[in-house]
Design goal:
With about 260 residues, the protein is an alpha/beta fold. It has one domain (about 10-105, about 165-255): Metallo-dependent phosphatases (Purple Acid Phosphatase, chain A, domain 2). The protein has helices spanning about 25-35, 45-55, 65-70, 75-85, 105-120, 125-130, 135-140, 155-170, 200-205, and strands spanning about 10-15, 40, 90, 95, 170-175, 180, 195, 210, 225-230, 240-245, 250-255. The strands form 4 sheets. It has a 4-stranded mixed beta sheet with strand order 3-4-8-9, with no helix packed on it. The chain has a 3-stranded antiparallel beta sheet with strand order 6-5-7, with no helix packed on it. It has a two-stranded parallel ribbon with strand order 1-2. Strand 3 and strand 4 (about 95) form a beta hairpin. The radius of gyration is 18 Å and the shape is globular. The two termini are about 20 Å apart.
Length: about 260
């Protein structure tokens, strides 16, 4: 933020995974909550995992790094604030999600589907008490790889889970548009029959430029100006990357040594 000369009049867009791979998840959430008027946040799979622990009754895993956050006195307040963030943000000619956008959806359809999930996970407790799917049930049932391909007739948790997986977990797709969750490596290592979600002519026709994170092994390279990859593996000792929307350029910061 210092390199960006970030000012009180600026907006800070964050492409998700605010927690669970660095050492200061608690400090990050507190800082961003205090900056709420300036931030535009979309949720990532690690944020949803944290919320599934707090509200869905799941347990933290051995690789999770947010023990301090889970033990904090204000953990529920932070979790309630976090669950009211978006899955998709669209403004200034850009569209941001955590993992990307499948070409099988138009931009208006993607916005509508994202709002469908947001309306569940952001419910008030009053609404949740009578909802067919409450936010607590959603987070209890969020995990799973099925269904792996979108159909317009999907219903209930299958529908919500599929939307979430496209927006927060997608990397490689097969010819039918089904998500592969096993491969997380570099593009040159992708198995035959799978291609990255951004290798789709329908996406090139979108008016907006897409911003996404999630896929660290891309190291910021997609081969198309239409899709800007922001995860450059800071957690693995490489770089943290920001994209200045006005200047249309990337600003990087080398990973700091772990204390």
């Amino acid at each position: 933020m210092k390199k960006l000369n970030f000012k009180d009049s600026d907006e800070l867009w964050l492409a998700g995974d605010l927690v669970n791979r660095g050492p200061d998840s608690l400090k990050v959430l507190r800082k961003l909550r205090d900056m709420d008027r300036q931030t535009r946040i979309v949720l990532g799979n690690h944020d949803l995992h944290f919320l599934a622990i707090v509200f869905g009754g799941h347990s933290a895993g051995a690789k999770d790094t947010f023990t301090e956050l889970l033990r904090a006195d204000d953990v529920e307040d932070l979790a309630h604030w976090l669950r009211r963030q978006k899955l998709l943000h669209r403004d200034h000619g850009y569209l941001m999600t955590h993992a990307g956008l499948p070409g099988c959806w138009s931009v208006p359809q993607a916005q509508e589907l994202a709002r469908e999930v947001e309306s569940v996970i952001g419910q008030s407790d009053e609404v949740a008490a009578t909802a067919e799917i409450s936010y607590r049930r959603f987070f209890a049932d969020i995990y799973g790889n099925r269904p792996a391909v979108w159909r317009n007739d999907l219903q209930g948790m299958d529908r919500l889970r599929c939307i979430v997986n496209y927006l927060t977990r997608m990397r490689l797709l097969d010819s039918a548009g089904a998500m592969d969750f096993a491969q997380k490596g570099a593009l040159q290592d992708a198995p035959a029959g799978l291609r990255p979600w951004f290798d789709d002519q329908r996406i090139e026709a979108f008016e907006e430029t897409l911003l996404f994170g999630h896929w660290a092994s891309l190291d910021g390279e997609t081969g198309t100006e239409k899709c800007i990859a922001l995860d450059t593996g800071c957690v693995w000792g490489r770089e943290l990357t920001a994209y200045a929307l006005e200047q249309q350029c990337k600003i990087t910061q080398a990973a700091l040594p772990r204390s």
